[in-house]
Specification:
Number of strands of chain A: 0
Number of helices of chain B: 8
Low-confidence stretches of chain A: none
Helix content of chain B: 10-25%
Order of helices and strands of chain B: EEEHEEEEHHHEHEHEEHEEEEEEEEHEE
Helix content of chain A: over 70%
Mean pLDDT of chain A: 91
CATH architecture of chain A: Orthogonal Bundle
Largest sheet of chain A: none
Radius of gyration of chain A: 19 Å
Distance between the termini of chain B: 19 Å
CATH class of chain A: Mainly Alpha
CATH superfamily of the largest domain in chain B: P-loop containing nucleotide triphosphate hydrolases
Number of strands of chain B: 21
Order of helices and strands of chain A: HHHHHHHHHHH
CATH topology of chain A: MetI-like fold
Shape of chain A: globular
Structural class of chain B: alpha+beta
CATH topology of the largest domain in chain B: Rossmann fold
CATH superfamily of chain A: MetI-like
Low-confidence stretches of chain B: none
Radius of gyration of chain B: 22 Å
Oligomer: heterodimer
Strand content of chain A: under 5%
Strand order of the largest sheet of chain B: 7-8-9-3-10-11
Chain lengths: ~220, ~375
Amino acid sequence: MAEAVLLTVELALLTTLVLLVVGTPLAWWLARSRAWWKEVVGTVVALPLVLPPTVLGFYLLIALGPNSPLGRFAAALFGHTLPFTFAGLVVASVIYSMPFVVQPVRNAFEAIGERPLEVAATLRASPLDAFFSVALPLARPGLVTGAVLGFAHTVGEFGVVLMIGGNIPGETKVLSVAIYDYVETLEWGKAHVLAGGMVVFAFLVILVTTVTDRRLRRRLA
Amino acid sequence: MSAIEARFGGRLGAFELDVAFSAPARGVTALFGQSGCGKTTVLRCIAGLERMAEGHLVVNGRVWQAPGTFLAAHKRRIGYVFQEASLFAHLSVRANMLYGRRRARAAADPGIGFAEVADLLGIGHLLDRSPARLSGGERQRVAIARALLSDPEILLMDEPLSALDRLSKNDILPYLERLRDELAMPIVYVSHDIAEVERLADQMILLEAGRVRAGGPIATVLADPALPLSRQIDASSVVSGRIESFDEEFGLTTLMVSGAEFLVPGRIGETGTTCRLRIAASDVALSRSRALEWSTILNAPVARITGAEAVGSYQMVVYLRIGPAGRGAPLLARVSLRSWRALGLAVGDTVFALVKGVALAGAS
């Protein structure tokens, strides 16, 4: 049981980290670009919000499998194909949780507006400098919300994991899958511990996010 | 030689801009005009925040914009003060002020000092506060300080007072006058408030629908009969004079304006320095005789009528030049049609301009 919890936390932390690094520039681009096709990209990023996780998992299984160019590339990179491995789970989770990070961060960037960046430019800050010294600090509430939502959403993922991760203890058997297993084998007591823990976790996440978000926003108002 | 030579042309949506002007190395050049005349766009072009199809901009002999050349905004040595103070909410007042300073390139010559600027704008006691805890006037003063500390060659101000209430405005104006008088750099000041311009500007560029309608020394532009300014109900003239003496008993300063003596309340400056007076057209009456012994009027310089025009149905705007020969500073008067007729006044006549009130418009 502890193994599943640890694995889940590890997966969620790593996914959140990757998402912040990849999702923040993407959110910046979506917030500032004037390209007509940016909403097409925005929609692709948002797809996991609507798609059944099994659909996503199915396509990921194919895309990362040994018969696709992407899968072969990954195999060459990691020495083995990604499905049914921890690395595969990370890749899937990043895609699956992407909209939960990109959307709040993009909103935060859009709320900043043009002015602070213009001010930074008149104060000799290059666009990159202004991004780090003005845009990121001002978007902090959005970044915090995005990170928490990305983390929490990854913790709760089930369908995608089942499709591309299978159920390998210590490798891909995360919390939600463990609960499913316990119920199937009628170990209701263990299922109760994990499920109850998740309820408490979800409650705390939402409460803490709301409170810190308010506080950060007030400080920047 | 002009410190700024600017020419911008092109379209911005439905708006067409076509302006050319220059600004001297010292003093305030006001870009004045109604909302939508393009004055803010011109300022943004100078800053490099906006790029017009055609643009030519030379600042202190260096080309900032020309066909094929465009210096990015962050590489221009400007200080820009926006309409709203736009302080960085995540930084303290001190960190805001140092933001530009840390990035300014002038390693050899740090220019104006931090303490000096904080003192100049009276914000030394606010340094550790967060911008959220400042009044509107204080915020704008910090924004000005931040701009000055970035070691600019030119200072660009986009209606820095228009977002403020009357009290905060009066609070900041003296600081702006100090900047004008103490900084050896050109200031381009955008405004739609003529009173502000009269108080601060040395040069005035009048913009209308994206074009320069007129430009020149403020005194000349204000009293130009060809322009609509002199016909406004709140029209004023601005005259400069040299301080001659101070009368301790009555607290009056004597000023010489184009050979005429003006008495102004208060000790307004050191003897020998130059001073600027703002005289509202409605505060000037005309008289055929200098019958001052029967009046409380202090100032009644001789002036010659150089022009006159009816405004509305019953009033006249009278254009005067101080001095019997009519070669001195321009002065505006607004009188009733009835008086104009009753006195039989005509262009070319020499009269006494009875000046009821003068407002000090700062040293210059």
